[in-house]
Automatic annotation (TrEMBL):
The chain crosses the membrane at residues 7-29. It comes from the Bacteria. Keywords: Membrane, Transmembrane, Transmembrane helix. This is DUF2334 domain-containing protein. Gene3D superfamilies: Glycoside hydrolase/deacetylase (3.20.20.370).
Length: 461
């Protein structure tokens, strides 16, 4: 073969080979670039600040600055029912903590800190911990109470123990005892609802540490409700009132100043709901004014806290409480939707998502007043009568009118009447009436092929 021909063939072959390699590399990177941009908004929830919105307010009270105190009068029971009265325990931001080594030993985990990072392991699980995050069997998440180094000992909160070790804490306020028992609820391996473009939003309303929520059994029932939603792959919202005031009863429960086991149990509920698919939002600060009780009174209107300074004070006190307790918040809902347009503008400086109608001429679907904010109404209303209102909302699901957002709210105090339980044999034995409003709503959503979303996922809809 002539030399020139051999050179030509070699050059042509080399060119083809280079083009094939370049195509393969380009395809490889394009595949992963595409994969990163395809996000299933029905598969996860996030509590992050949106990229195009940043509140100008920096909380005055931070979780990291909160004091630590030692607790000596609360006992534990871990799986076997035996009371443990000598476990070291501390309190920070309405969370009880016990030593990591102590709980790990009780649950047969080995603790390894030899490489400068904390690792827990047994025959089934490997857990890595940082100050504020964890990784368990390749699944990552945030610690609700953070890991605290107190007197050269690492302490972990009860709510993080629940999450990491698949336990549920049942509080006994009268005897100042916490039973940690097996939490048998699991998330579905795949969504209970087939692929669908229909979506709904649900919200627990007027949720504060007062009335029914200061009863230990009722706090456990809230966890059982959360487990119902979690086990069916459903997301939900919790409109939280950080301070609960009932002037006629001389009751003023400020979570920043009243350290007690009742408030610890309540914050543990908030943590538990977050871990089970809930997003927390501020529902005012105390949802009252003057002699009215929390949940019934106004807090922003043309007549109440109507100056700019007063409006900002209400918003900022709520944000400060959330920051101090390390409760992430993703939206704001004003009490009874009675704020003025000027007060709405002020709220919009602090929050991107406002869970209420922009005005009553735009009350049936999401309204976007600008390129950043979303106002999200609840056109299906609330469940007041457990029978008729539940059926009315189910009928609205089945109508499927795309011009009406399938969004409703529910006071969980109604649902607790349908739940009973005991902890015999160190198990959470639940008796949950299938005719309860929430049970019926869950079944209806599944049958009508609705996915549930968080409010911050609506930005992509």
């Amino acid at each position: 073969m002539p030399k020139n021909l051999r050179v030509l063939i070699f050059s042509f072959t080399s060119l083809i080979l280079i083009l094939l390699i370049a195509y393969t590399i380009t395809s490889y990177f394009n595949f992963f670039r595409t994969s990163k941009t395809v996000i299933n908004t029905n598969a996860y929830s996030n509590l992050r600040q949106m990229d195009n919105f940043k509140s100008p307010y920096n909380p005055k009270i931070k979780f990291s600055d909160r004091r630590i105190s030692e607790i000596h009068d609360v006992s534990l029971s871990i799986l076997d029912g035996t009371s443990i009265t000598d476990a070291p325990m501390i309190l920070k931001s309405q969370r009880y903590y016990i030593p990591l080594d102590f709980i790990s030993k009780k649950l047969n985990y080995n603790v390894d800190n030899s490489k400068g990072s904390l690792s827990l392991s047994n025959n089934s699980n490997i857990i890595s911990l940082t100050e504020d995050s964890y990784e368990k069997n390749s699944k990552k998440g945030h610690l609700r109470g953070h890991l605290i180094n107190y007197k050269n000992t690492f302490y972990i909160s009860i709510s993080d123990i629940e999450k990491l070790f698949d336990l549920i804490a049942v509080f006994d306020f009268q005897n100042k005892k916490i039973n940690l028992i097996q939490d048998e609820v699991t998330a579905p391996e795949k969504s209970s609802i087939p692929s669908s473009d229909k979506f709904a939003l649900m919200r627990f309303e007027d949720f504060g540490c007062g009335y029914t929520n200061i009863v230990d059994r009722n706090q456990t029932k809230i966890k059982i409700m959360s487990n119902l939603l979690y086990s069916n792959g459903m997301k939900f919202h919790v409109s939280w009132m950080p301070r609960f005031i009932v002037p006629s009863s001389n009751f003023d429960n400020d979570l920043l100043t009243k350290d007690n086991i009742t408030n610890v149990g309540f914050v543990d509920i908030l943590d538990y709901m977050i871990n089970k698919g809930g997003e927390i939002g501020l529902h005012g600060y105390s949802h009252q004014s003057g002699n009215t009780a929390s949940g019934t009174g106004e807090e922003m209107s043309k007549d109440v806290n109507n100056t700019e300074a007063e409006t900002r004070a209400v918003i900022e006190k709520g944000i400060d409480t959330a920051s101090a307790l390390n409760i992430p918040i993703s939206y704001y809902e004003s009490p009874h939707y009675r704020e003025t347009m000027e007060q709405k503008k002020i709220i919009s400086e602090y929050f991107q998502f406002i869970y209420e109608p922009y005005d009553y001429s735009k009350k049936d679907n999401v309204y976007k007043p600008d390129d950043i904010h979303l106002f999200v109404p609840t056109p299906l209303g609330r469940i007041s009568d457990p029978v008729s209102d539940t059926q009315r909302i189910i009928d609205k699901f089945n109508e499927g009118n795309p011009d009406i957002l399938k969004s409703f709210y529910y006071h969980p105090s109604i649902e607790i009447e349908y739940i009973d339980f005991d902890t015999n044999d160190n198990k959470l034995n639940i008796r949950y009436n299938p005719d309860s409003p929430l049970q019926r709503i869950v079944k209806a959503l599944i049958n009508a092929r609705y996915n549930t979303l968080h409010i911050d996922e609506l930005k992509d809809k």
